[in-house]
Amino acid sequence: MSLDPTQLPAGAQPLLTERHLATLTTLRPDGSPHVTPVGFTWDEEARLVRVICSGSSVKARNAARGGRAAVSVINGRWWLTLEGKAGVLEGAEEVRDAEERYAQRYQTPRVNPSRVVLVIEVDRVLGNVPDDL
Q: Among 14, 18, 64, 70, which has the minimal tally of Cβ within 10 Å of its Cβ?
């Protein structure tokens, strides 16, 4: 079911804030999907997904080309897919902010001097979530 990314139902919040892993799908240069498990954070106000990763990773290189990407999270029968334009942020402040968000949801990430932030500017959400909590 298609959901409005500006007004997600309250039932979506556990999938976006509790400790759940997800899959990230980016597109390779030949257009084929590259899917990998990730932790992610959701910035509802900015409608932005953040995934911390190494700048040399396939997912970061794919996102740096500016195509589309999607994060899918599942918990039993409830699921969400957040989709949009992908990009990479490399600034120290942007990386630090993403690390802090990640630490709040999961745990403090290990030190990685080559870390970047893969971002998805969410413009489409699909899912099956309860209408309320």
A: 18
